[in-house]
Amino acid sequence: MNKVNRSLFDEANPEKWGYLYKIAGYATIIMLIIIPIQIAIFTIFPFPDSIESWFELFNKNWILGLIHLDLFYIINNVIVAIMYLAFYFSLKKKNESLMIIALALGLLGISAYLSSNKAFDIYYVLNGITLIITSCVMFKSSIYSNKIAAIGLFSGVLMMIPSTAGTMGLIFSLASLVPWIVFAILVSIKFLQLSNLK
Q1: For residue 126, what is the enclosing H or E element?
Q2: Burial level of 49, CB count in 10 A (0-12/13-18/19+)?
Q3: What band does 117 get if pLDDT is binned at 50, 70 and 90?
Q4: End-to-end CA distance of the chain
Protein backbone atom coordinates (compact mmCIF):
# COMPACT_ATOMS: atom_id res chain seq x y z
CA MET A 1 0.00 0.00 0.00
CA ASN A 2 1.45 3.37 -1.01
CA LYS A 3 1.74 6.33 1.34
CA VAL A 4 -1.42 8.09 0.05
CA ASN A 5 -3.55 4.95 0.37
CA ARG A 6 -2.13 4.28 3.84
CA SER A 7 -3.16 7.77 4.92
CA LEU A 8 -6.67 7.30 3.52
CA PHE A 9 -6.87 3.84 5.08
CA ASP A 10 -5.87 5.13 8.52
CA GLU A 11 -8.30 8.04 8.33
CA ALA A 12 -11.34 6.23 6.91
CA ASN A 13 -10.89 2.83 8.63
CA PRO A 14 -12.39 0.82 5.72
CA GLU A 15 -11.81 -2.48 7.54
CA LYS A 16 -14.49 -1.41 9.98
CA TRP A 17 -16.67 0.87 7.82
CA GLY A 18 -16.02 -0.40 4.28
CA TYR A 19 -19.47 -1.94 3.95
CA LEU A 20 -21.09 1.35 5.02
CA TYR A 21 -19.04 3.24 2.40
CA LYS A 22 -20.09 0.76 -0.28
CA ILE A 23 -23.79 1.05 0.62
CA ALA A 24 -23.45 4.86 0.76
CA GLY A 25 -21.79 4.90 -2.66
CA TYR A 26 -24.47 2.82 -4.38
CA ALA A 27 -27.30 4.53 -2.49
CA THR A 28 -26.00 7.92 -3.65
CA ILE A 29 -26.02 6.70 -7.24
CA ILE A 30 -29.67 5.65 -6.79
CA MET A 31 -30.46 9.13 -5.48
CA LEU A 32 -28.78 10.66 -8.53
CA ILE A 33 -31.08 8.58 -10.75
CA ILE A 34 -34.20 9.54 -8.78
CA ILE A 35 -33.62 13.34 -8.84
CA PRO A 36 -34.08 13.91 -12.61
CA ILE A 37 -37.01 11.47 -12.68
CA GLN A 38 -38.66 13.41 -9.87
CA ILE A 39 -38.09 16.76 -11.63
CA ALA A 40 -39.47 15.37 -14.91
CA ILE A 41 -42.60 13.98 -13.22
CA PHE A 42 -43.28 17.25 -11.39
CA THR A 43 -42.81 19.15 -14.66
CA ILE A 44 -45.03 16.89 -16.78
CA PHE A 45 -47.73 16.21 -14.19
CA PRO A 46 -48.66 19.35 -12.23
CA PHE A 47 -49.73 19.16 -8.60
CA PRO A 48 -53.46 18.77 -7.95
CA ASP A 49 -54.99 22.13 -7.03
CA SER A 50 -57.98 20.92 -5.01
CA ILE A 51 -59.10 18.10 -2.71
CA GLU A 52 -61.22 16.69 -5.54
CA SER A 53 -58.18 16.70 -7.86
CA TRP A 54 -56.17 14.72 -5.28
CA PHE A 55 -58.89 12.07 -5.02
CA GLU A 56 -59.14 11.93 -8.81
CA LEU A 57 -55.36 11.54 -9.11
CA PHE A 58 -55.28 8.65 -6.60
CA ASN A 59 -58.18 6.96 -8.38
CA LYS A 60 -56.46 7.24 -11.76
CA ASN A 61 -52.84 6.66 -10.75
CA TRP A 62 -52.06 6.01 -7.09
CA ILE A 63 -48.30 5.73 -7.78
CA LEU A 64 -48.26 9.25 -9.24
CA GLY A 65 -50.30 10.37 -6.23
CA LEU A 66 -47.66 8.99 -3.86
CA ILE A 67 -44.90 10.65 -5.88
CA HIS A 68 -46.73 13.99 -5.56
CA LEU A 69 -46.88 13.33 -1.82
CA ASP A 70 -43.05 13.25 -1.94
CA LEU A 71 -42.45 9.48 -2.08
CA PHE A 72 -39.16 10.02 -3.94
CA TYR A 73 -38.17 12.76 -1.52
CA ILE A 74 -38.67 10.37 1.38
CA ILE A 75 -36.45 7.78 -0.33
CA ASN A 76 -33.83 10.46 -1.03
CA ASN A 77 -33.85 11.52 2.62
CA VAL A 78 -33.17 7.98 3.79
CA ILE A 79 -30.24 7.86 1.35
CA VAL A 80 -28.96 11.23 2.61
CA ALA A 81 -29.01 9.83 6.17
CA ILE A 82 -26.73 7.00 4.99
CA MET A 83 -24.47 9.55 3.30
CA TYR A 84 -24.24 11.54 6.54
CA LEU A 85 -23.17 8.41 8.43
CA ALA A 86 -20.47 7.73 5.84
CA PHE A 87 -19.28 11.33 6.11
CA TYR A 88 -19.15 11.07 9.90
CA PHE A 89 -17.05 7.90 9.97
CA SER A 90 -14.73 9.04 7.19
CA LEU A 91 -14.14 12.51 8.68
CA LYS A 92 -14.34 12.02 12.44
CA LYS A 93 -10.57 11.65 12.85
CA LYS A 94 -10.18 15.17 11.48
CA ASN A 95 -12.73 16.79 13.78
CA GLU A 96 -15.08 14.46 15.62
CA SER A 97 -16.80 17.27 17.55
CA LEU A 98 -17.87 19.14 14.42
CA MET A 99 -18.83 15.96 12.61
CA ILE A 100 -21.09 14.77 15.46
CA ILE A 101 -22.80 18.18 15.38
CA ALA A 102 -23.19 17.92 11.59
CA LEU A 103 -24.55 14.38 11.88
CA ALA A 104 -27.02 15.37 14.61
CA LEU A 105 -28.28 18.40 12.68
CA GLY A 106 -28.60 16.42 9.46
CA LEU A 107 -30.57 13.62 11.10
CA LEU A 108 -32.75 16.16 12.90
CA GLY A 109 -33.43 17.88 9.58
CA ILE A 110 -34.39 14.62 7.94
CA SER A 111 -36.61 13.71 10.89
CA ALA A 112 -38.29 17.11 10.72
CA TYR A 113 -39.06 16.61 7.05
CA LEU A 114 -40.30 13.06 7.43
CA SER A 115 -42.54 13.93 10.35
CA SER A 116 -44.29 16.86 8.68
CA ASN A 117 -44.10 18.72 5.41
CA LYS A 118 -44.85 21.89 7.38
CA ALA A 119 -41.33 21.55 8.83
CA PHE A 120 -39.83 21.90 5.35
CA ASP A 121 -38.05 25.15 6.24
CA ILE A 122 -36.34 23.49 9.21
CA TYR A 123 -35.33 20.59 7.01
CA TYR A 124 -33.63 22.83 4.46
CA VAL A 125 -31.82 25.01 6.98
CA LEU A 126 -30.56 22.13 9.18
CA ASN A 127 -29.36 20.13 6.20
CA GLY A 128 -27.73 23.22 4.72
CA ILE A 129 -25.84 23.71 8.00
CA THR A 130 -24.91 20.01 8.04
CA LEU A 131 -23.48 20.25 4.53
CA ILE A 132 -21.56 23.43 5.37
CA ILE A 133 -20.00 21.86 8.50
CA THR A 134 -19.21 18.61 6.68
CA SER A 135 -17.60 20.50 3.79
CA CYS A 136 -15.49 22.62 6.15
CA VAL A 137 -14.12 19.45 7.80
CA MET A 138 -13.54 17.97 4.31
CA PHE A 139 -11.10 20.80 3.56
CA LYS A 140 -8.85 19.40 6.34
CA SER A 141 -9.19 15.78 5.24
CA SER A 142 -6.88 13.84 2.94
CA ILE A 143 -9.84 11.67 1.88
CA TYR A 144 -11.93 14.33 0.14
CA SER A 145 -10.46 16.85 -2.28
CA ASN A 146 -10.83 20.59 -1.83
CA LYS A 147 -12.94 20.54 -5.01
CA ILE A 148 -15.48 18.18 -3.41
CA ALA A 149 -15.49 20.27 -0.23
CA ALA A 150 -16.02 23.52 -2.16
CA ILE A 151 -18.91 22.10 -4.17
CA GLY A 152 -20.54 20.76 -1.01
CA LEU A 153 -20.07 24.12 0.72
CA PHE A 154 -21.66 25.96 -2.21
CA SER A 155 -24.64 23.60 -2.23
CA GLY A 156 -25.05 23.98 1.54
CA VAL A 157 -25.09 27.77 1.29
CA LEU A 158 -27.77 27.65 -1.42
CA MET A 159 -29.86 25.28 0.73
CA MET A 160 -30.05 27.88 3.49
CA ILE A 161 -32.94 29.60 1.68
CA PRO A 162 -35.79 27.05 1.69
CA SER A 163 -38.03 26.37 -1.28
CA THR A 164 -41.04 27.68 0.63
CA ALA A 165 -39.55 31.21 0.75
CA GLY A 166 -41.44 32.39 -2.33
CA THR A 167 -39.90 32.76 -5.77
CA MET A 168 -36.40 33.32 -4.41
CA GLY A 169 -36.70 30.16 -2.31
CA LEU A 170 -37.75 28.16 -5.36
CA ILE A 171 -34.83 29.56 -7.38
CA PHE A 172 -32.31 28.81 -4.61
CA SER A 173 -33.68 25.29 -3.99
CA LEU A 174 -33.45 24.44 -7.70
CA ALA A 175 -30.03 26.08 -7.95
CA SER A 176 -28.79 24.03 -4.98
CA LEU A 177 -29.53 20.85 -6.93
CA VAL A 178 -26.78 21.58 -9.48
CA PRO A 179 -23.83 21.55 -7.06
CA TRP A 180 -25.60 18.89 -4.95
CA ILE A 181 -25.74 16.51 -7.94
CA VAL A 182 -22.06 17.12 -8.78
CA PHE A 183 -21.16 16.71 -5.10
CA ALA A 184 -23.19 13.48 -4.88
CA ILE A 185 -21.49 12.04 -7.98
CA LEU A 186 -18.03 12.79 -6.58
CA VAL A 187 -18.74 11.45 -3.09
CA SER A 188 -20.39 8.27 -4.42
CA ILE A 189 -17.14 7.55 -6.26
CA LYS A 190 -15.16 8.34 -3.11
CA PHE A 191 -17.36 6.11 -0.93
CA LEU A 192 -16.84 3.21 -3.33
CA GLN A 193 -13.07 3.85 -3.38
CA LEU A 194 -13.01 3.83 0.41
CA SER A 195 -14.92 0.53 0.48
CA ASN A 196 -12.23 -1.08 -1.67
CA LEU A 197 -9.13 0.12 0.22
CA LYS A 198 -6.99 -2.84 1.24
Answers
A1: helix 120-138
A2: exposed
A3: low
A4: 8
Q: How many residues does the chain have?
A: 198
Helix (H, G, I), strand (E, B) or coil at 185: helix
Query: How far is the C-alpha of 159 from the C-alpha of 179, rounded, in Å?
Result: 11
When computed from its CA atoms, the radius of gyration of the chain, rounded to whole angstroms, is: 18
pLDDT digits (tens, 9 = 90+) for 76-94: 998 999 999 999 999 998 9
Q: Is the pLDDT of residue 119 over 50?
A: no
pTM for this prediction: 0.73
Residue 2 and residue 4: Cα distance in Å, rounded? 6
> DSSP E strands: which ranges in 11-106?
none
Angle of helix 14-44 versus helix 166-195 axis, rounded to 10: 150
CA angle 42, 46, 50 (to 5 degrees): 135
Sign of torsion, CA 185 187 190 195? negative
Q: For 130-180, what is each residue's pLDDT tens digit?
A: 999 999 999 999 899 999 999 999 999 998 887 767 788 888 888 999 999
